[in-house]
């Protein structure tokens, strides 16, 4: 079979570079071009020394304005799929039927994640430039939407907090084990989630020895989580989501709190029943590990891989359950899941190019 | 005035060494003896090179068994106050009227924190050896119990998570702004909180790049928080408390979630009203900083000091409030608060020896 | 071709676990048994959660005393090669002709690295129990001894500092560009190099924010470096080697200083000539990257891989040259090179199972 | 006595903010104004949350161009001393006799450190705008030039690498124990030394898990070290200096290598003799700790203080000596030494405001 030909817009951000890294090791993919606004003309290895020896690809100019004026169609002709690792709004501004006739799009931004354009515009404070394409876009949380992913032309790759938060809670929301209106998600992120721009707040000296919340009651990943978990519960609800920045390179850890419901007969859910619900939902998933009782998910145990580690603990004193999930924000939280989706979209084995054992220590 | 004479049992643990560090810089205190089970006969500087030049105190043998056989009374005769930075159970095993006639005790363990001996024995799984002294012991969260601290003979110095969690929520629980039965506390700790014993789990290579929960629904600081906040609310309640370990040396960050109540007239609490409640509670406190709206507490902004930074955010979408507090686990979370209590107990200015500006970066 | 069957003694140390991780992803190897003194009977995943899902191998008892009493021969019968990731002296104590008839040995300790038994005993302070096998043992710095590695029965896998230090200097020593008697090696190591035993000195809280030298003028990797570089120079010489511990998980960085010689005609070596010497030595090596002028090797640019990054800078003001090399101490500095050697010993492609692109960030 | 009145230009850089932090805790100093180019009009606490509660000083505009047009003289009239924590060239551009009639200057930049203007211009690639003031400027390595510091009008505060490198080697160079022409200095720095500007290279995600050299054979602190050590040796010489960046907030560690000379009678220097030389040089210095034999200086053991820890090790195999020094780059390497110099310049006790015990962990 011919290799899948790939283009990457925004290849010098952390997510874009991680896609490139994965695809250079992927048996069935070939990266044809990579773009950058700031470093065009240079080899990627001049910015990312890890790539030295592995590729001599040069960064082409992928300035959004020039792409919009038609350049994107020429580039699309050269490849089977374009990954857009771009700021909010950029992918929507490029979207057209002409583009989709030439290539598939896997968008790393939020442009096509939210089905309700009003929600998008309220949380992102920008006008959506391609609302007509929202209905056909597939939300690429692969484990939940695998069938739609297969035929997607526009794949909206989920956010990092989102993927972790949703996968951790989904089976229990769907089974009605927890009361979704009580759901509170407290999450930690490594610093690579803040991207590769030179901001004082993300300097080593500012972040080291620091732990703090940010975007409290206002983080943009909130509506994504609400959208998908509302699908699971069958009715819309709101939740509280609080992200924190902690001093590590990679990793998302979600700790989620909810009140347990009672069963139809008024009795309480047992640990075994809840474990069975998770097993049924994820038992066959290649990238989800339901941990043994008592073992808490740890970001380092999934680092560098597409895995999600999940577990839970009942708190009978309060009638609550505590759910925990961990993933690598640049892998299952971004590039890894994007490649997983690419595999599904092109009929490749879903785990192709993603079968890494986590590095420890 | 004569200096307060001090002895420290357990001076080579992190909390004990921090007490020593603070007292060596304290104008009105003099450390007379320091003890260690493992390093007796050595200078403390051989284990803690930071002390070189500042003290040539040698560590005496403070093995609990030998102390119990009477040695503690001799040591008590030499000082005005003994800090016991010892494992659970040790301080209770030493307690006696004879001891308290000779010296005051500031206990860093949990032995005298919980008023209900049954609660202590359930959470700590050991028999309390001095339950008769529980009634007179003062829970040394200074800001809440300042008057009792003044006359305490046994000062039970609070835990690190506890101090942060309680101070952050106390005024709102007391004012009835939040429904205590909905309270969930999600907390992060630096690794020094795990102590200075050579455990594989706390090796640099194991902790770096790691974020994970532990002690889920079972951490021993839970009943302390419940005891004090139940005092504030006027009725007993349970809460959910989840600690996490993150890769930094020092710091506790507590993020707390609760449903807002309605006011007597059925209207909602405003941000200004809630801020006023905090101001009234803490406006005159030397060690509590209520941050401006929108600024999230950050562990590094209090590192090395006895400060607690507190703030909150309303989440009108869900009817909840998110509370945030940060402190240094070895300072306000242990040694700093112990010295603050010593100051109060001996009639010294409460901030004496604790007036540091946090180091940044 | 049948897969190479492998046993690992000491699989729960960092090096042993890294060998396992690599071999579980290796197309042509099959791990038959793994051993541990402390965790026998458990699944490796209970100690190393990264392995969950990837193997259910249980740790067998590999206590050295029991192995010596004959158990090692039974175990050897099951495999083609045994990796001994054991303390100094253990592998030598197991060595015998009977053993080597059954299996090949790749030893991660220093037991068979030094050709001169007196040097071994002086630096390691233990009696060598199998000196008769020293002559046939091959020093497994693959790039330097590839031909001997092919037929080795006992492969002495080099140390981490050693591999980095030697490879960085070797071509220039051999070409006579530097005066070996002036060679000074200053090296930095991540903390995983200190192993996985629960020592206070390696706790996160002790190592974070710490940089210090250790083993000054006495580190045991010194004679290995001297042995190999003396081979290159053609005459014995001593050098100064100073290791330092810095707060990161993985990585060795060597900075080496030497006086430049003059060429036969009295003129000075040019940068281009020196670069050509490196290119000739390493131009075809899969795992060595000679960096472009002006780019300094960085440990993070090789992390998780078997690569060594090398560069140099002339210092005409002083007549010296500064050499720099970086590698991952658990990969090219331990497990990666061990697998590279296994590949060579069994006629497999040298890069098999080692073709990773470094992770960034 | 009236307090020393102070102004700080560049108060929002790490060094400037550290000067402010120290002086706010200083009994005999009063900060009258603080300046910033980027944040004028704001309270310093909005950028440095550690200052909240401790000062409500607002940042004035200290744009160099406006200062040059005369504003600096008005500001100078208000204070006894101005600290210039500014980029290279700024302080020289402001220098005038009118200025020095109004105030003393403690300059944190290199403008007045090098006595030879040609050396300055060669290493810094800028024209020196006030060469006439070079002769009177005092190089503020306090321990070496204490008498001149007392009467200085222009105090050139040394660099961080410089202070550590010079103090570590000075007594041995002066005593002729080492051959200065063989001196090689290998140094490590925490990331705060790179300043507080938003550069990608200093992001947490770029620096964490990274160790690398930079400025090899070309770092600007080299000529400072050569100038001062040449004063000690009595003749000019060049040396090799290699700085490295390692993932920690603060700290400089210098490891220095040199060949030992022989004594006049041809015999070798003993460890006791060398120790005596250090003791004689530094035995009475408040901020220098000569460590016991076998204890290596560690950056964390001096963090947050003005201390320098020094030790050495003989390497009889090679005839060399290894010298080691550690300090906090923002304290003795910048702000701490600046305050130490201020104390000396104004007749205050030299240790005033600098008597901290290092924080551990």
Features:
Rossmann fold, Dihydrodipicolinate Reductase, domain 2, 361 residues, alpha/beta, 31% helix, homotetramer
Molecular structure report:
Four copies of one chain form a homotetramer. Chain A is of the alpha/beta class and 361 residues long. Chain A folds into two domains: 4-158 and 333-345, Rossmann fold (3-Layer(aba) Sandwich), CATH 3.40.50; 161-328, 2-Layer Sandwich (Dihydrodipicolinate Reductase, domain 2). In chain A, 31% of the residues lie in helices and 20% in strands. Chain A has eleven helices and 14 strands. In chain A, helix 1 (14-24) links the parallel strand 1 (4-9) and strand 2 (29-36). In chain A, helix 1 (14-24) crosses helix 11 (331-345), helix 6 (142-150) runs parallel beside helix 11 (331-345) and helix 7 packs parallel to helix 9. The longest helix of chain A has 15 residues, at 160-174. The mean pLDDT of chain A is 97. Chain A binds chain B through residues 184, 186, 188, 190, 205-206, 208-214, 216-217, 238-240, 242, 244, 246-251, 253, 255, 257, 296-300, 303, 313-315, 317-318, 320, 322, 324, 326, 361, and chain B through 184, 186, 188, 190, 205-206, 208-214, 216-217, 238-240, 242, 244, 246-251, 253, 255, 257, 296-300, 303, 313-315, 317-318, 320, 322, 324, 326, 361.
How do the helices and strands line up, and which of them pair or pack?
Four copies of one chain form a homotetramer.
Chain A: E1 4-9, H1 14-24, E2 29-36, E3 59-61, H2 64-77, E4 81-84, H3 90-94, H4 97-102, E5 104-107, H5 117-124, E6 138-139, H6 142-150, E7 154-156, H7 160-174, E8 184-189, H8 204-207, E9 212-213, H9 222-233, E10 240-245, E11 252-259, H10 271-282, E12 288-290, E13 308-315, E14 320-327, H11 331-345
Parallel strand pairs in A: 1-2, 1-4, 2-3, 4-5, 5-7, 6-7, 8-10, 12-13
Antiparallel strand pairs in A: 8-11, 9-10, 11-14, 13-14
Helix pairs in contact in A: 1-11, 6-11, 7-9
């Amino acid at each position: 079979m011919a290799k899948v030909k790939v283009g990457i817009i925004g290849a010098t951000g952390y997510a874009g570079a991680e896609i490139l890294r994965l695809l250079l090791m992927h048996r069935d993919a070939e990266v044809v071009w990579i773009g950058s606004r700031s470093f065009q003309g240079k080899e990627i290895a001049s910015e990312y020394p890890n790539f030295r020896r592995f590729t001599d690809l040069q960064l082409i100019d992928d300035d959004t304005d020039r792409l919009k004026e038609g350049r994107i169609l020429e580039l699309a002709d050269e490849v089977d799929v374009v990954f857009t690792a771009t700021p909010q709004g950029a992918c929507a501004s490029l979207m057209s039927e002409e583009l989709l006739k030439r290539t598939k799009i896997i968008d790393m931004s939020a442009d096509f994640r939210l089905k309700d354009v009003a929600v998008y515009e309220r949380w992102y404070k920008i006008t959506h430039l391609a609302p007509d394409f929202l209905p056909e876009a597939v939300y690429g949380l692969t484990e939940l939407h695998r069938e739609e992913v297969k035929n997607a032309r526009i794949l909206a790759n989920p956010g990092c907090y989102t993927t972790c938060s949703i996968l951790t809670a989904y089976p229990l929301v769907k089974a009605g084990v927890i009361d979704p209106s009580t759901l509170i998600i407290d999450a930690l992120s490594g610093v690579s989630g803040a991207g590769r721009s030179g901001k004082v707040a993300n300097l080593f000296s500012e972040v080291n020895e620091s732990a703090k919340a940010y975007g409290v009651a206002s983080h943009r990943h909130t509506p994504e989580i609400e959208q998908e978990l509302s699908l699971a519960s069958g009715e819309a609800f709101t939740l509280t989501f609080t992200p924190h920045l902690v001093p590590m390179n990679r990793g998302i850890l979600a700790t989620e709190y909810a009140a347990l419901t009672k069963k139809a007969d008024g009795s309480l859910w047992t640990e075994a029943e809840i474990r069975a619900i998770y097993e049924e939902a994820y038992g066959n998933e290649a990238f989800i590990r339901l941990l043994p009782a008592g073992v808490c998910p740890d970001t380092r145990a999934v680092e560098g891989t597409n895995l999600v580690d999940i577990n839970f603990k009942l708190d009978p004193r309060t009638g609550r359950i505590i759910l925990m999930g961990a993933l690598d924000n640049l892998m299952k939280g971004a590039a890894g899941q994007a490649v997983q989706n690419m595999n599904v979209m092109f009929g490749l084995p879903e785990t192709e190019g993603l079968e890494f054992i986590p590095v420890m220590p």
